[in-house]
Amino acid sequence: MYTPAAPLHQQAKYRQPRVRCEGAQRLTGFVWFHIFNCTELLQFRKHCGGVSTGDRTMMKLAIETIGWIAAAIMLAAYVMLTTGRLSGRSNFYHWLNILSGAGFIINSGWNGAYPSASINVVWVAIGLYGVFGRRPADAANSTV
């Protein structure tokens, strides 16, 4: 007879956390180090008492704000490119894409949208190549 494994949140309460902490003040470093490991995060919150509702609300607001600013930057870059105010080879255009991609990586990664976060890593890499990987003659000819 098949018996399914316990959900992650139930498995987490039986394992010992890998970190020792004095409280929620170490949460930030732990979350960024283990952002992709849900089990470890659940263990940490249980072990350290979690974070206050106000801290979670502020962090969520900050992450959402970063995502909306990234969306506005990406949309502005596309509008300026389409209307001819910006060249697709200009450093400014590439920096707008790098900044918006970084904002989407933060927002998508935090919210668990890993395919979106992954494609934005590639987006940022392409933008960095556009700024730093081109030949000097190409960079000199690119204008805003």
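Above is the first protein from milestone M3; the second protein from the same milestone is given next.
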Amino acid sequence: MDLILSFTICISAIIGSIIGSWCTFHFSIKKLEKENEIRYHEEKYSNLISYFRSFYESSLVDYTLRQKFLDETNQAWLFASDEVIKNINEVIDILRPGAKYQDTVKEKIVGKLILSMRKDIIGKNKTSLKTDDFKYLKLIKQNSK
């Protein structure tokens, strides 16, 4: 009887170790996958914001950057949330030739896009920022005399 009890305890310990190791491995892999996904989104969203400058700043008419923005926009369909895609489409509407929007309206639409990207990266409930909190900052060159 003691032999059976010892054997049962030994087998239980081995099975417990295997299950514990598997759980640790599984959750470590899931965490790593999530970190990689966040890093990928950060990189892609940063590119979108950087390339967007070529539309926003009238002194920077760089068609190469504009094409990169459009390429990144198309690629966003593969990974971005629905909210981000809808907000990208709104931004594209204000960028169309002949579109007449006041700067405050443009800034609000872009702010909405940036906020949706932020929520996509850090989580919807982890920010208290609003669309109006976004301010598009740009350097204004002054003429030197």
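Note on the second protein: The mean pLDDT is 84.
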